[in-house]
Amino acid sequence: MNSYQYEYTDTFAGDANYSWVKRGSVSVPELTHYGFDGSHGYSKANKSQLREVMRLIKRELGLTGTKGERLEYGDGTIEFRPCGLCTVLFIDPNDEGGIE
Length: 100
Prior knowledge:
Elements lengths: L1 E11 L2 E14 L13 H20 L6 E5 L5 E5 L4 E7 L7
Antiparallel strand pairs: 1-2, 1-5, 3-4, 4-5
């Protein structure tokens, strides 16, 4: 299982403010569950896995159905800014799991 940690907080002038914060973690199956067999299919499996991560975290935070802007960084960090809510969500793969 791959696990991801998340932080959801408010923003001030577009930057994370941390006057309140919700933290947690979710676990999802390995990439092989999504069709990656070691030789091909990595891109599709990775997209499916990240979609599942977003779905689980948004459900835990009560953001199901909320649209927003998603940014992905090279170290595996995902930033999600829900439209019109002045909040930001950061998702990081745990050291023992995460994006391969």
